[in-house]
Design a protein that fits this description.
Number of strands: 24
Distance between the termini: 92 Å
Strand order of the largest sheet: 8-10-13-14-9-15
């Protein structure tokens, strides 16, 4: 039985290898040896085919034979070690058969418990390599995972539903192999069988020595894919290229993390950087590596034909190490490469690198692409960080791309969407390259508009160009087609990797939150967290780290979360099983919404929930998403539509005022802030936003008065002090402040004396620079001491401290 299982596993491996692209660094042993049973040849053959499949891209398959396991007492008795692998068991079995008194190959020294244990272990370890039976037939098919389409196995077949043991493999004629075998129809009866199949050996790789060639003379070895965008079509990213150049010339920086949303152009950027380095097109760059290696962990691809799954296997740093070892000329990776831990394997590779090429870690550039797919749990997140750290320390300088801001010791470089102009430029370039008339005839404003509607994301814009060229009926139809693709499959491409790394409780929370609303403030976040049993801090951290699922901001020390529309669609029909029950329950969202309304009523003031009320309409939420995405024109247009629909919403006008202030449209911003206060005269947030606008436009007197009103109506003192410090830092010439006039006597025209009580009066004063700096520093120190400043407020505090340090007497 063990022979049958091993033979079937080898045939499956061989047929899979035969379908892979031929590579000079791969070779297979003689396939006809699969029918040989002497001296453990079958076990050695299985090991060789596993290693060949691993090199061909079947990640971690070699651990089937070489991965360690815990031995039971019965197995320990045979192999005499507590952590054997299947290879050890096979070798022990061969020794037992060959040394037995019954004769060569016969079951000598037989111990029933040991043999049964070995049979169970062999079945469990080789089970992923076994083919499936087509219903009501003797034909077999195989797929590596649930997403890979089953492929027919032609070299194997069943005999009346029973597996066949191959006895001989003989060439019948050109391209045809005859298989003679045996099938057990009962425990004591066997039947001989013979059939012919296409000769699998034709498709298996032959042995050749590896060789590399490159058109570039700046480095000795290049293992790098072609550009993802033609050199003359590469668009924008000039600042990012300069940032990468600065990193490369910083000898003390061992790693750089390029991160941003899926489809934003991270891989395109790092490959363009590497190719420009090789071509000498970065003259300001002094560093030149001797070796460049590239590893991609990409699992899915999205384009005009929708979502395509490339790989579904787990990938780790050990796979990167083995890949580099093969690229650098390791003809065969022995079993030790699959038994080692990451540190041992990295140390071995470092030694091979020094011996084979005479280079050290300072002269090797490693590009790791799409590392977000290498993490599916918190433990794997830590292991990835440690593994990349070891690679950077021992093997080479590491340039990492990820959709997430991974917690690794690396210089971060965030990639944002293109500007409207860059999107239009790219569309124009691609239109000319593909002779796409609809795009070539379009004006600049039209191209900008389509770019903006598609999020200024390179991946989606490329799908739009391809769709426009393919359907030939115009850009609007192509736009609708791409939108349909986005609704159907883009979410899976963008978010599946992030989803898999969330623990079950956070998946439950995110599903619940997206059922409740696409916008959440600290109150609704807290209610959802309480329902699921997750701390708000953990939820906030997870959403921040997984860039792309939502825009996240901290306003006045409190989080505001707006989920991306694609992520909302991704979560729409999903549930997760918790304790045998599908969650979230249909009524959970309604209960949270009811609790939220009750909290708002109980507070007596909507100050804690003002953001949710402001964005209660679909146009308002769209406007805020555009504002967060820095899409100025779309944000203004959507705010105007929201106001037309919900014009009495003072909180909405306050949000609009804040956006206009960011765009430095101070007159319009102040107009909206005043309208907001007409509707919400005693709301602290409305007054606080108005004070920000007044201070930014230079009206310090009015700004200080509005801050006082905001604090009076409940705005936290520390946030008010932060804004007061801002006013002091950016002081103009003078300021009107409130002072107390003492009591005094006046004489009426009739001569009668009258007492006037002390009163509050306003006067214009000028504070000298040292006094202004002293007051501002005192306010900032108080804010810092309070510990409430975080996120954007902490950034503002640091900026004000920096501005204070640069103020000189000569400035005034």
């Amino acid at each position: 039985m063990i022979r049958i299982m091993t033979q079937h596993a080898i045939v499956v491996l061989a047929e899979w290898i035969a379908l892979q692209p031929k590579r000079s660094d791969r070779s297979c042993p003689e396939f006809t040896d699969v029918a040989t049973a002497t001296n453990g040849i079958l076990a050695e053959l299985l090991g060789n085919y596993l290693l060949t499949a691993e090199r061909a891209g079947w990640n971690n398959v070699a651990t089937t034979l070489f991965g360690r396991m815990h031995a039971t007492d019965a197995v320990f008795e045979m192999v005499e070690r507590r952590d054997p692998n299947l290879d050890d068991l096979f070798r022990a079995l061969v020794r037992s058969r060959n040394e037995g008194a019954e004769g060569h190959g016969l079951p000598g020294n037989c111990i029933r418990e040991v043999d049964l244990a070995l049979l169970r272990i062999t079945f469990e370890r080789l089970k992923p390599l076994f083919p499936d039976v087509l219903e009501r037939s003797d034909k077999l098919v195989f797929s590596r995972n649930s997403v890979e389409a089953p492929r027919p196995i032609t070299t194997l077949r069943l005999y009346h539903g029973k597996p066949v043991l191959m006895r001989r493999l003989l060439p019948a004629r050109a391209g045809i192999l005859r298989i003679e075998g045996q099938a057990w129809v009962s425990a004591t009866t066997s039947a001989s069988i013979s059939f012919e199949v296409n000769d699998i050996r034709v498709g298996l790789p032959r042995c050749n020595s590896p060789s590399y060639s490159t058109e570039y003379s700046t480095v000795s070895l290049v293992c790098l894919p072609e550009r993802l965008a033609a050199s003359d079509e590469f668009t924008g990213r000039q600042q990012e290229l300069l940032d990468l150049t600065d990193w490369a010339d910083d000898d003390d920086s061992r790693a750089c993390l390029v991160y941003g949303d899926g489809g934003i152009g991270k891989s395109t950027l790092v490959l363009e950087f590497a190719h420009r380095l090789l071509e000498g097109r970065l003259p300001e760059l002094k560093w030149r590596p001797d070796i460049i290696t590239f590893f991609s962990a990409k699992k899915t691809r999205w384009g005009i034909n929708g979502l395509e799954r490339l790989n579904a296997e787990s990938i780790g740093v050990l796979d990167v190490v083995r890949h580099i070892a093969v690229l650098l000329g390791q003809k065969e990776l022995g079993p030790h490469w699959y038994k080692n831990d990451e540190k041992t394997a990295i140390d071995r590779l470092a030694g091979d690198l020094k011996i084979a090429f005479g280079v050290d870690r300072r002269s090797h550039l490693i590009i790791l692409d799409n590392t977000e797919t290498m993490i599916e749990s918190v433990a794997e997140k830590r292991r990835l960080a440690e593994g990349i750290g070891l690679l950077a320390k021992r093997i080479g300088r590491v340039l990492v791309t990820s959709r997430r801001a991974e917690v690794i010791e690396a210089q971060p470089l965030q990639i944002e969407p293109w500007s409207d102009d860059e999107s239009a430029d790219y569309l124009r370039k691609r239109g000319y390259a593909l002779l796409c008339e609809p795009i070539n005839r379009s004006g600049l404003a039209s191209l900008k508009s389509y770019g903006r509607k598609l999020g200024n994301k390179p991946l989606i814009l490329e799908a739009f160009v391809q769709a426009t060229k393919a359907n030939g009926s115009g850009m609007e139809e192509a736009f609708r087609y791409v939108q349909k693709l986005q609704r159907e499959e883009l979410g899976a491409f963008l978010y599946e990797d992030a989803w898999e790394r969330f623990p079950a409780e956070l998946k439950h929370l995110l599903l619940l939150m997206t059922r409740v609303a696409d916008f959440h403030d600290h109150i609704s976040l807290g209610l959802c967290c309480a329902k699921v049993g997750v701390t708000a801090m953990n939820a906030d951290d997870a959403i921040r780290e997984s860039r792309g699922i939502a825009s996240h901001a901290v306003y006045s020390g409190r989080p505001e979360i707006v989920f991306n529309s694609e992520f909302m669609r991704f979560c729409m029909n999903r549930t997760i099983e918790v304790g045998g029950i599908q969650r979230p329950a249909p009524q959970d969202a309604d209960l949270i919404q009811a609790e939220y309304r009750n909290v708002v009523r109980t507070q007596g003031s909507p100050s804690g929930a003002w953001s949710l009320i402001a964005l209660r309409s679909r146009y308002a939420r769209r406007a805020w998403r555009c504002f967060e995405a820095k899409e100025r024109d779309e944000a203004i247009e959507s705010f105007l539509m929201a106001i037309k629909e919900d014009g009495d919403n003072g909180f909405l006008r306050a949000k609009y005022a804040l956006a206009l202030c960011t765009y430095r449209m101070y007159v319009e911003a102040l107009e909206q802030a005043n309208l907001a206060i007409e509707f919400e005269a005693e709301n602290a947030e409305c007054w606080f936003i108005k004070s920000r606008i007044e201070i930014d436009r230079g009206d310090t007197h009015a700004g200080m008065a509005s801050i006082d009103r905001a604090e009076k109506y409940g705005k936290d003192k520390h946030f008010c002090d932060l804004l007061r410090a801002r006013a002091l830092v950016f002081w103009k010439d003078s300021i009107r402040i409130k002072t107390t006039a003492p009591a005094r006597y006046v004489t009426k025209p009739s001569g009668e004396k009258m007492t006037i009580d002390e009163q509050i009066v306003e006067e214009t004063i000028t504070i000298d620079v040292p006094e202004r700096k002293r007051r501002a520093r005192a306010l900032l120190a108080g804010v810092m001491k309070s510990g409430v400043a975080e996120g954007n407020d902490l950034v503002e505090l640091r900026r004000l401290e920096s501005e204070l340090s640069s103020i000189r007497y000569s400035d005034y």
